[in-house]
Specification:
The complex is a heterodimer of chains A (248) and B (319).
Chain A (H helix, E strand, L loop, with lengths): L4 E10 L2 E11 L4 E6 L5 H8 L7 E6 L2 E2 L5 H7 L1 E4 L11 H13 L12 H13 L15 H12 L6 E5 L7 H14 L5 E5 L3 H7 L2 E6 L2 E6 L1 H5 L2 H8 L4
Helix pairs in contact in A: 3-4, 3-5, 5-6
Chain B lengths: L3 H20 L2 H24 L8 H17 L6 H23 L4 H21 L9 E2 L13 H27 L2 H11 L1 H6 L4 H27 L1 E2 L6 H14 L4 H21 L4 H15 L3 H18 L1
Antiparallel strand pairs in B: 1-2
Classes of the chains: A alpha/beta (248), B mainly alpha (319).
C-alpha cells in the first residue's frame, strides 16, 4: 500500500543552522506519529516543510505518491494535508461557531458564493457535528479572543479538520495547556478524528507521546535519531541523552 | 439572503425616503442625493474595511463612474438615468478588475498608498486631457427616467432623489445580505488571520480582489449619481480630498451597519452645508472639530450607536 506520506532526503538550512539534514520518513495510513525533540531540533521545520510554510532546500515530499514538494500551503491543504499551530491560528474577532462556519464554507466552496447563508442546513449540521465532537458547544457564541487557551487549541484543530484531511499535523497541541487538562484535550482530539486520518503531532510531554502515538520520530540537530514504537524510542540511550534527559 | 425583518426595514426606509423627498425643499433633496452618492462610495469602503483594508483612492472609482456616465451621455447620446448610472458603475467595475490584481497583494499602509497613487495618477491624467475638458471638466444635460423627462428643475431633483434612494436601498440590502453571509464572514476572517485562510485552502488575494471590485462598483454607481445631480464632471472627483471624505464617512459610520453608512454620509453633508453657510470663512475648522469629536467620543462610529439601541429588543426576542 502506498504510504500516506513519504519524505526523501529532505534538507533545510537557515544560514549556518541546519534545521533538517537528509530526513527520510515513510508514514502509513492511519498511523499516529509523535514527533519529539528539544527546541531547535527541527520538528516544527519538518511540519512547516510538509505543509508548505517553508520550502526545503533539497529532497522530496510525496503525499500518497503525489509530489507536493515546495507547493503553497493552499495547494497542499487542498491535496489533503491540514494542520494546527503551536499558537492557534483563528479568527479572533469571530465567535467559535463563526470560525467553524468560515472553515466549513471554504471546505465546501460555499464561502466564495456571494450570499450563501451560514444557517443553511448542511452548514449548520456540520457545525453542530464539530462542536459536539470537540466538546465546544458551550463556547459556540464566545468570541475567540475571550476563549481560554485549551479551548482555542481544540477549536484550532476543529477548524483544521473541516476539510476532512488525509494527513493532519498538530504542532504542540497541548503546549500552554494546564498539565491536568492535557490528557483530556488529547482524548477529545483523538476520539474526534476518524481512524483513517493519519496524525503527526509535535509534543514535549513524553507521557502524552507514549499514550497517544503508535510510533515516535525523535529529532536531534535536524536529523531523526530514532524511529520506532514509543517504548523503544523512549528507552533509546541517545534519546535519553539528547532529548528526554532521563537517566540511563 | 435577507430575513423578512431586514427586508421589511429596508422597504420602510425606502417608503420613508420617498415620502420625505415630497415634503423637503429642493435643496434638501439635492443634498440628500449627494449624500446617498457618497454613501455608496463609503459603503464600498466598508466592504474593504471588513477585510482589513483601507483605501485612500476610492475617488478613482467615484470619478470613473462619473466620467463613465457623463461620456455615455455626451458621446453615446444616452440620456436614461438607469443606463447612465449602470454604465458608470460598470466602467468603474472594469477599472477595478484591471487594477485589482496589482493592489490585492498589498496590505496596510502600502495598500492605502497604492490606491491613493492610482487615483492621483488618474486625476493628473484627466487634468491634462483636453478632450475630456481638462481641469474644467464637462457639463452634462438633465437625464430622463425610463423615457420620462422632468418638466422643471424641482421635478428633476426629486426624480433623481427617488432614483438614488431606490438604488441606495437596494444596494444597501445586497450589502447587508453579503455581510451576513458565509462570504461576508470570510472577509472578516481575512482581516483577522490570513495564514489560517490560506491553510484552509482558499486564496486571500482572491477575496481581497473581489472585495476591491465590489467597492469599485459601488463607488462607480455613487459617482454616476453624483455626476447626474451636479450635471458636471471634473477631475476633482479623483482628487485625494474626495477619497478622504469617503474614509471619514466610513469611520463615522463604523462597520456594524449599512444604514449607518448613509446616516453618516447625510450627517457629514449637513454639517458641511451648515458650517459653510454660518461660518463661510471657517467651515473647514468646524468640520475638523466635528471629525475630532467623532473620533474621540464615537470611536466605533454611528453604527455602534444603532446596534446598541437595537440590542435590548434582540435580547427580549431571545427571552
Amino acid at each position: 500500500m502506498t504510504p500516506i506520506l513519504e519524505v526523501k532526503s529532505l534538507s533545510k538550512t537557515f544560514g549556518s543552522v541546519t534545521a533538517a539534514a537528509d530526513i527520510n520518513v515513510s508514514v502509513k495510513v492511519g498511523e499516529r506519529v509523535g514527533l519529539i525533540g528539544t527546541n531547535g531540533a527541527g520538528k516544527t521545520t519538518f511540519v512547516n516543510m510538509v505543509t508548505g510554510y517553508i520550502k526545503p532546500d533539497r529532497g522530496t515530499i510525496l503525499l500518497q505518491g503525489r509530489d507536493i514538494t515546495g507547493q503553497s500551503p493552499r495547494y497542499i491543504t487542498r491535496a489533503g494535508v491540514c494542520r494546527s499551530f503551536q499558537i492557534p491560528q483563528l479568527f479572533l474577532g469571530l465567535t467559535a461557531e463563526e470560525n467553524l462556519v468560515v472553515a466549513i464554507g471554504i471546505a465546501t466552496g460555499r464561502a466564495l458564493a456571494p450570499h450563501a447563508s451560514p444557517d443553511a442546513p448542511d452548514t449548520r449540521g456540520a457545525v453542530e457535528d464539530l462542536l459536539s465532537r470537540f466538546r465546544l458547544g458551550e463556547y459556540r457564541h464566545r468570541v475567540v479572543s475571550e476563549l481560554p487557551g485549551g479551548v482555542r487549541k481544540l477549536l484550532d484543530i476543529a477548524v483544521a479538520v473541516t476539510r476532512k484531511p488525509k494527513l493532519l499535523l498538530l504542532d504542540e497541541p497541548t503546549s500552554g495547556v494546564a498539565s491536568e487538562q492535557k490528557f483530556a484535550l488529547m482524548d477529545i482530539v483523538m476520539e474526534a478524528l476518524p481512524d483513517d486520518v493519519t496524525v503527526l503531532f509535535v509534543e514535549h510531554d513524553m507521557d502524552i507521546v507514549s499514550r497517544y502515538s503508535d510510533r515516535v520520530l525523535a529529532f536531534y540537530d535536524g536529523r531523526i535519531i530514532s524511529d520506532a514504537h514509543p517504548s523503544v524510542v523512549l528507552s533509546d540511550p541517545q534519546v535519553k541523552s539528547y532529548i528526554t534527559g532521563a537517566a540511563n | 439572503m435577507l430575513d423578512w425583518r431586514s427586508t421589511a426595514h429596508l422597504c420602510m426606509a425606502l417608503v420613508a425616503l420617498l415620502a420625505a423627498g415630497l415634503v423637503l425643499p429642493g435643496w434638501a433633496n439635492f443634498l440628500l442625493v449627494i449624500a446617498l452618492s457618497k454613501g455608496l462610495a463609503a459603503l464600498g469602503l466598508v466592504v474593504l474595511l471588513r477585510s482589513g483594508l483601507l483605501s485612500f483612492g476610492q475617488g478613482l472609482f467615484y470619478c470613473a463612474g462619473g466620467y463613465g456616465a457623463g461620456l455615455l451621455m455626451l458621446w453615446g447620446g444616452i440620456s436614461d438615468a438607469a443606463l447612465l448610472v449602470g454604465g458608470g458603475g460598470l466602467f468603474a467595475l472594469l477599472i477595478g478588475v484591471a487594477t485589482g490584481p496589482l493592489v490585492a497583494g498589498y496590505r496596510k499602509i502600502f495598500f492605502a498608498t497604492l490606491t491613493l497613487a492610482l487615483s492621483m495618477l488618474v486625476h493628473g491624467a484627466l487634468t491634462k486631457a483636453d478632450f475630456l475638458g481638462g481641469t474644467d471638466g464637462l457639463n452634462l444635460r438633465a437625464p430622463t427616467f425610463f423615457g420620462w423627462r422632468a418638466g422643471s428643475a424641482g421635478e428633476n431633483v426629486y426624480a433623481l432623489y427617488a432614483f438614488a434612494s431606490i438604488l441606495a436601498v437596494a444596494l444597501a440590502g445586497l450589502c447587508r445580505a453579503h455581510f451576513g453571509s458565509v462570504r461576508g464572514l470570510l472577509s472578516l476572517g481575512v482581516r483577522d488571520n490570513e495564514i489560517r485562510i490560506e491553510y484552509l485552502g482558499t486564496s486571500v488575494r482572491r477575496v481581497v480582489f473581489e472585495n476591491f471590485v465590489i467597492a469599485a462598483f459601488l463607488a462607480g454607481i455613487g459617482g454616476a449619481i453624483n455626476a447626474l445631480a451636479l450635471s458636471h464632471i471634473d477631475p476633482e472627483l479623483a482628487f485625494w480630498t474626495t477619497s478622504g471624505e469617503f474614509v471619514f464617512v466610513a469611520i463615522l459610520a463604523g462597520q456594524a451597519s449599512v444604514v449607518a453608512v448613509f446616516a453618516a454620509s447625510v450627517l457629514l453633508e449637513v454639517v458641511r452645508s451648515w458650517s459653510s453657510q454660518y461660518f463661510p470663512n471657517a467651515w473647514q475648522l468646524t468640520l475638523g472639530v466635528f471629525m475630532l469629536a467623532v473620533i474621540l467620543f464615537l470611536p466605533n462610529g454611528v453604527g455602534a450607536l444603532l446596534r446598541r439601541r437595537s440590542r435590548p429588543s434582540v435580547e427580549a426576542d431571545a427571552k
